[in-house]
């Protein structure tokens, strides 16, 4: 290894470079600047996609070929080539692997999913709000590092559009979560917690943030957020980017400021941290940053007491160039609110990753959020794609899997991964659409999670459809009045006959004089129905098998309470995503229903006509 490399992120970058050496032309270019080298790496790796994938598969099968799963269950017999892999290894879901995972979690140290030389060292717990159940995904110590150059690749990409970005610092809200231990003694924690606790994160020169590590690692959400916000305020002029992993986390931080600015300002004035922060290491870390600053305290009070929160991010952190947060998929509905609080700053959704593995990068980070595509990084795992337009009844789905270099523009696929950490042809559950290519590497827009959200009978409403419907009603009927939907979720109500959709809305007034009366909310119900699928409207109009859609308006703060509830049950704040459907979560329904302030029903039938008569 090149001894000149600095620790951690740079070291990992160097080892990655070693695994995928640059040709001589780009090595020469690399001398110019490390950004140039990283950009050259992206160029190279996206040019040689198929060869890189073949090599990655051989490497994975070489590492894990002696595992019980590959050797005995699949009968791979040491083969590392694609043809044998395709012929012998089935496509699986979490349920298929659960018995193997259980044994590892219970302490069986034989090579079950990974090779004898690469034992599972921890489990990563998925957010659990997508499929309902929290999944335990195996991880191997050296594997997460494959993704760690991501932050430095991201900074290199951004530097092309925002000169000097490397010099400033980021106000980036990170949250670690408490971890558990499996009966067999392995840690089970979120992927972000695993990352934050790793040495490569602690020492990474690629990530300069205002948040002290002690605050990030503090498992008490209030103390962690308070300390991160306070440090962000103290260094407000150094901040050039503001972010959190998911848009919902960033908005929660804004909300935190709305609720706690008076106390934060008092702390800044006195230079003394609030006694509600009791964690010793957090107090020590904040003491290194906090000084009595009456002028800053006056400024915070003046900005936050105006009652006008439009553009608050750029008012408080005036040098912010863009927001760095994921605003695609389920997070797309927050784009409008992000714009509102930031005064329209660009929103960079930089990466696409999961507990299974790191997946892709957005090579055009400052593009409009609705146009984001992720380029899958072919060195992260072996990627295959299940076409969405094949016959669902066909049992031989694995035969239909398409390799990364062979997907077609315009088609939708479900992502299937084979990882260094022992998942083989594993369905992630994400549906992606191919939007184009960067060199030979396909680019994908995130379409949705596989699971349907709402269904009363033949209708199948997914997350994207529901979001479009909420968006349509909100932009047509609420925004002109100075109101918006701050957050929402849904469920089917089958206590009535016929059943109907119930959509819970928390409203936000962007104009303090906004009046949203019953009539407007009834029209919102109808507008949503108009936006739902033809199958839904047919059921409503022709079949009468679905009742009028209902909006239940909930009290301000309800979605925060929902998040607190999820966090109290083990979800990490950093990974939390509002469940878009709560039909199967009676405790959450109870929480929501206890906070309903008014109910509204669609006043008439939406439009529907048989095909050809529209
Ligand atoms: P988890 O494993 O709990 O961290 O959740 C990973 C899932 O979050 C992915 O499988 C996606 O469904 C979703 N996700 C992650 N990154 C993005 C992104 N950039 N855009 C949309 N959805 C994402």
TrEMBL record:
GO terms for cellular component: cytoplasm. Residues 465-583 form the GH3 C-terminal domain. Keywords: Ligase. It comes from the Eukaryota. One of its GO terms (molecular function) is acid-amino acid ligase activity. Residues 374-449 form the GH3 middle domain. It holds the Pfam family GH3_M. Belongs to the IAA-amido conjugating enzyme family. PANTHER family: GH3 DOMAIN-CONTAINING PROTEIN (PTHR31901), PTHR31901:SF60. This is GH3 auxin-responsive promoter. It comes from Eragrostis curvula. The lineage of its organism: Eukaryota, Viridiplantae, Streptophyta, Embryophyta, Tracheophyta.
